[in-house]
Amino acid sequence: MNQYDNKDFFDEYAKMPRSTDGLKSAGEWQQLQQLFPELNGKRVLDLGCGYGWHCAYAAKHGAKEVIGIDSSERMLSAARKRNPDSHVNYELCSLENYRYPCSKFDLVISNLALHYVEDLDSTYKMVWQTLVPGGIFLFNIEHPTFTAGVGQDWIYDKDGNPEHWPVDNYFYPGKRKTRFLGRDVTKQHHTLTQILMGLIHTGFQLEAVIEAEPPRDMLSIPGMKDELRRPMMLLVRARKSNVFDIC
Questions:
Q1: Helices 120-130 and 192-202: crossing angle, nearest 10°?
Q2: 24 near 209, Cβ under 8 Å?
């Protein structure tokens, strides 16, 4: 079962600011938004769409077709209620099992989902296949410094203040177990080399690589200033070279 289909876990996730208030409460959104290409008349695929915030954004900005896939039934149920749109279709499917039709989408986006994927290279190849020539792959993945964090948590002093962020086993990709919202969660650690060179080896051209920082107007939120002490998210925009397609 997808961990987000556990009722207790999902109920806790639903209380997070990015869950209740959407994109405006996501610390990375101001930087990610600037990486979106022109959406008017475009076809968009959202891998791991969650509540559908990015699907709704694409539709609002003129996308003629948006497909959001997610492997959580609870997430998709919430997406259909919170972000319905005649141009958006939500499908229950994992990233690994989606059909990826040949040369269909102008934009493939993925927000905070790829760090659950073990084989990034295979995913990159499927995204390449489904993009039109010149299409954009835009994603936000947990930063390797974060996924290599020991338990993905700070080392605290005797008063409970974060002293430093420990990193270990960086060059050993694979499973990382952590506690998130009171539940054991398994993620996949990938090095920076794997994330970026995997795209290049697939044939993508890197257009932007940004280590996300919270905006100044959010630094008053408890704990947000600590997000400037180590990167948590990595934003990447890559383009499929404008070549003849054979799928």
A1: 40
A2: no
* Residue 11, token pair as written in the block: 């109920």
Q: Which residues of 3-18 are buried (b: 16+ CB within 10 A; e: fewer)?
A: bbebeebbeebeeeeb
Cα 180 versus chain centre, distance: 16
Residue 235 zone, left/alpha/beta (φ > 0; ψ -120 to 50; rest) = beta
Q: Within a 10 A sphere around the Cβ of 230, how many other Cβ atoms?
A: 16
Residue 17 is predicted with a pLDDT of 78
Rounded distance, CA 79 to CA 84, Å? 7
Residue among 188, 186, 205 nearest 197 (CA):
205
Q: pTM of this prediction?
A: 0.94
Separation between Cα atoms, residue 52 and residue 50, nearest integer Å: 5
Placement of tokens 């509540």 in the chain: 51
CA 135, CA 121: separation in Å to the nearest integer? Answer: 18
Contact criterion met (CB below 8 Å) for 28 and 89: no
Question: Is 243 a residue whose pLDDT tops 80?
Answer: no
Question: Hunting for tokens 């990193």 — which residue is that?
Answer: 167
Q: Report how far residue 82's alpha carbon sits from residue 145's, in angstroms, rounded to the nearest whole number.
A: 33
pLDDT-derived band at 86 (thresholds 50, 70, 90) equals: very high
The letter for the amino acid at 7 is K
Q: Is 50 helix (H, G, I), strand (E, B) or coil?
A: coil
- HSE at residue 214, side-chain half, CA atoms within 13 A, is 19
3-state secondary structure of 9: helix
